[in-house]
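In the current project phase, the collection of sequences with tokenised folds has grown. A representative record is quoted in full directly below:
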Amino acid sequence: MAERLPKELELRQEENDRAYQLAKASREHLQSLQHEDSEANATPDDLLKAQQTYDEHEQFRRRTSSRLQTIKNNIRDCQEALEFWQQLADGEWGHLLEDAERVREGGPTSYAEAKRQDAEKEEAP
């Protein structure tokens, strides 16, 4: 996954750039026709086609933007996971061993601790 995501990110960025350019060009074309329409040069059919083209390109741009963000989120999640597991590999077990350490020292189990906390919540006004 770590090898695939950077390639996917590059592809999604290229796709998003293309989609942005298409949406921008179709928006400009539509606006120019709308301006011409006030001067009675553009037909209603031309305006309708331009609007449909713009709508399609804008939907495509939104989809590609969403896909790009998904890839970015996946990369961030993978990096966080790698950092977490690297810490564990380096011996920083932290919170994963807190319960085991407490029980080893004679403290209550996680189950007993959860029951105690639930009882305290019920007693609180």
Q: What stands out?
A: The mean pLDDT is 87. Residues 93-125 form one domain. The chain has two domains: 4-91, 93-125. Helices lie at 4-38, 44-89, 98-104, 110-123.
